Amino acid sequence: MSDTINIGNTAILRTAALAPMAGVADRAYRLMCKRYGAAYVVSEMVSAKGICYSDRKTAELCTVTDEERPMAVQLFGSEPDFMAEAVKIVLDYRPDIIDINMGCPVPKVVGTGAGSALMKDIKLAADITESAVRAAGKTPVTVKIRSGWSHDSTNAPELARALEAAGAAAITVHGRTRDMFYSGESDSSIIKAVKEAVSVPVIGNGDVCSAADCVKMYEETGCDLVMIGRGSYGNPFIFRETEAKLRGGDYEPPSLETKMQVMLEHIRLILELSEKCEELAMHEARKHAAWYMNGYYGSAKFRGRCYQLSSYAEAEALAEEFIALQRSREINPQ
Ligand SMILES: Cc1cc2nc3c(=O)[nH]c(=O)nc-3n(C[C@H](O)[C@H](O)[C@H](O)COP(=O)(O)O)c2cc1C
């Protein structure tokens, strides 16, 4: 297996990428995943029309720092002209790739004809892609899709062919239909079918929660790259683990102490990058803190306490208490 793939002229290590996740994978999250081995990261989705009408939040959502590269900025929209205009604005931020969201299942997005609604209109999906490709010049444009709108209309291979013909430089496939939202099982056979249908790189996504799942995704689908979303919650280590598993390097799972140190590193980054005061920025850190503590004795109780954190000092104290609780269980398992 080759060590890298190329999307346009961007080389990406063939390990695992971080999926776009609105409300989760902000710059602090992307930087953490990058530091712990993510091969490629994608921004939270940004509205093409929103960018065209106002630049409020555009810089916050579209800025690409060198530490994050290679990175894509992801746009969603349902009108080819707005998409082209938005692409031109986003190019000022010098993303390595521009990705178009054709998989979002949320009614607010689908109701405007964007996200996974485009899976029902292949002609419009291709027009939007073509328009973006023309506006993007040398910057590659990729598209992220689902397996289809519903179980009876899994048209990902047909759509992917049309997107490739429209100039898409790669296709990411999440193996669920829009109807499934995020439940049920992601179907890797549809990712394989897309891989067989197109010659541009295919990125496989859905339910990869461990390095072993990632290897399975490569083997079962023949995809060119694997993308991980929820499996990275409180677990940026998944990227290093995957890299080690694929490349044969050493991997030592993090101790609880290391996990808590990394959680605090993540919180410091959130506070550093936020323009809000410490107390409000801590609101953004709460869910992450709870995720880092997941899966241990007493996690549920600590989860509730994470959701009350309002300062970094409190997070430090909570981490210490959490470690002490786990250690006392080792000494006295009753
Ligand atoms: C909280 C959340 C936010 C998401 N936001 C986006 C988004 O902005 N753009 C996108 O293309 N997909 C988005 N997704 C979908 C993920 O990128 C991914 O396709 C999906 O979670 C399946 O992968 P996983 O099983 O590894 O999580 C989001 C998913 C979650 C859970």
Query: How would a textbook summarize the main sheet?
Result: 9 strands, parallel
Number of helices: 14
What is the 3D shape? globular
- Level-1 CATH class name of the largest domain: Alpha Beta
Features:
46% helix, Non-ribosomal Peptide Synthetase Peptidyl Carrier Protein, Chain A, alpha/beta, binds flavin mononucleotide, 15% strand, two-stranded antiparallel sheet, 334 residues
3D architecture notes:
By secondary structure, the chain is an alpha/beta fold. It has 2 domains: 244 residues, Aldolase class I (TIM Barrel, Alpha-Beta Barrel); 76 residues, Non-ribosomal Peptide Synthetase Peptidyl Carrier Protein, Chain A. It is 46% helix and 15% strand. It is built from 14 helices and 11 strands. Strands 3, 4, 5, 6, 7, 8, 9, 10 and 11 form a 9-stranded parallel β-sheet that branches. A hairpin with a 2-residue loop joins strand 1 and strand 2. The radius of gyration is 20 Å and the shape is globular. The model has no long low-confidence stretch (mean pLDDT 97). Bound molecules: flavin mononucleotide. The site of flavin mononucleotide (FMN) has 23 residues, from loops.
